């Protein structure tokens, strides 16, 4: 599959979303990390997709952890979209302290 190009970032996004919907956040994050093994470099948009997926499936704490890790490792600087995703997620959780 790796050589034929059958697996794309969209494929990984779909798998991450399905795991998150089944409350398997650990597997969703592991799937994200496996993208590099398939020759796909993680970009800011990929982090945003994972954070968005986790937030929309009511796993905002895990989304916050991914965000914090991203900033800590200084791989990417969060953009307006990243912050908007988190703000919306915490707002849905009714956690005004985190917003």
Question: Explain this structure to me?
Answer:
With 99 residues, this protein is mainly α. It has one domain (9-92): Tetratricopeptide repeat domain (Serine Threonine Protein Phosphatase 5, Tetratricopeptide repeat). It is 64% helix and 0% strand. It has helices at residues 9-21, 25-34, 44-56, 60-73, 80-92. α4 (60-73) runs antiparallel to α5 (80-92). The protein is globular, with a radius of gyration of 14 Å. The model has no long low-confidence stretch (mean pLDDT 87).
**Helicity, as a percent range:** 55-70%
> What spatial form do the alpha-carbon principal axes imply?
globular
Q: Report the CATH topology name.
A: Serine Threonine Protein Phosphatase 5, Tetratricopeptide repeat
CATH architecture tag:
Alpha Horseshoe
Brief characterization of the structure:
Belongs to the PPR family. P subfamily. By secondary structure, this protein is mainly alpha-helical.
Map the helices and strands.
Layout: H1 9-21, H2 25-34, H3 44-56, H4 60-73, H5 80-92
Helix pairs in contact: 1-2, 1-3, 2-3, 3-4, 3-5, 4-5
Key traits:
mainly alpha, Serine Threonine Protein Phosphatase 5, Tetratricopeptide repeat, 64% helix, globular, 99 residues, 0% strand
């Amino acid at each position: 599959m790796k050589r034929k190009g059958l697996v794309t970032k969209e494929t990984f996004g779909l798998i991450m979303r399905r795991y998150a919907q089944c409350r398997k956040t650990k597997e969703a994050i592991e799937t994200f990390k496996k993208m590099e093994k398939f020759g796909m470099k993680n970009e800011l948009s990929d982090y945003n997709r994972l954070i968005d997926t986790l937030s929309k499936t009511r796993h905002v704490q895990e989304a916050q952890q991914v965000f914090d890790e991203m900033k800590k490792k200084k791989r990417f600087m969060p953009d307006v979209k990243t912050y908007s995703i988190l703000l919306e997620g915490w707002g849905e959780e009714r956690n005004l302290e985190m917003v």
